[in-house]
Amino acid sequence: MTLRVGSTYGVNLRMQPPAALDAALMVDLDILGPWLTAVKGNVQFIQIGAFDGFTNDPIHDLVERFAWRGILVEPQPEPFERLCATYSGYDGLELVNAAVGEEAGRKTMWRVADPQPSDPEWIEQSTSFDRDHLIRHTHGRQDLIDRIVGVSTETVTLEELFARSAAPVDVLQIDAEGYDAHIVALLDKIAQRPTIVRFENRNLLPTEHADAVARLTRRGYRINVNEDDTVAVLYEPGRGTTATY
User: What domains does the chain contain, in order, with CATH numbers?
Assistant: First the structure.
């Protein structure tokens, strides 16, 4: 398999045999990220659900090691403050304190308020547009359910984020607590196709995950699914173009 840069806005991948990419897709951003950097140079990304920029974050090391540039979106005020601290002094990053929705404006997000020492460490990352989803995420703990509150949150559209990007988007990373498939569906409104789309599947219904995979497949992506996440890589067999803008 030979990798080479095709143009300013695209990455060309020549494969022989085609099964070579299938093997490559068994890895995650820890491998695909350095590969994309090597063949593309300056990588531009959008991260939806950036949280604090460090906890369980697949983008952080790539920003540190390769100076990836992009837009990081996090709706919760407290984690957003920590996100700002994490990336203080970094160049080429825009931090957005909002959630991604179908329309720009405001929408209620549900979260567990008044953090307690006995709370699971992951509960702060479980903010969702869907209150029932958050209740399921508490695994029946009444002390958590009793502290669920709705918070009015600013929303931006995916189209706006792509328009605000300083360069064509190479990587779209999504961790939206069960809203991931909705955001993948919003990609249908955008002509640009990132080379890599990665989203969390752990909190999706099988039908939602299947729909997201089908949408990406129709747009030319090859799919790899692991226990928690789905990684889609764009290429055209026989031609090798992985990104067109």
Answer: 2-100+158-234 (3.40.50.150)
For the chain, how many residues are written?
245
Distance (Å, whole) CA 35 – CA 185: 27
Tens-place pLDDT, residues 169-221: 999 999 998 899 999 999 999 999 999 999 999 889 999 999 999 999 999 99
- Contact predicate 87/145, CB 8 Å: no
On the question of a cis peptide bond just before residue 17, with omega within 30 degrees of 0, the verdict is yes
Tell me the pLDDT tens digit for each residue of 93-148.
Answer: 999 999 999 999 999 989 888 888 888 877 777 788 888 888 887 888 898 899 99
Q: Which residues, in sequence order, are CB contacts of 239 under 8 Å at separation 6+?
A: none
What is the model's pTM? 0.83
DSSP codes of every residue in 117-161:
TTS-TTGGG--BS-HHHHHHHTTT-HHHHTTEEEEEEEEE-HHHH
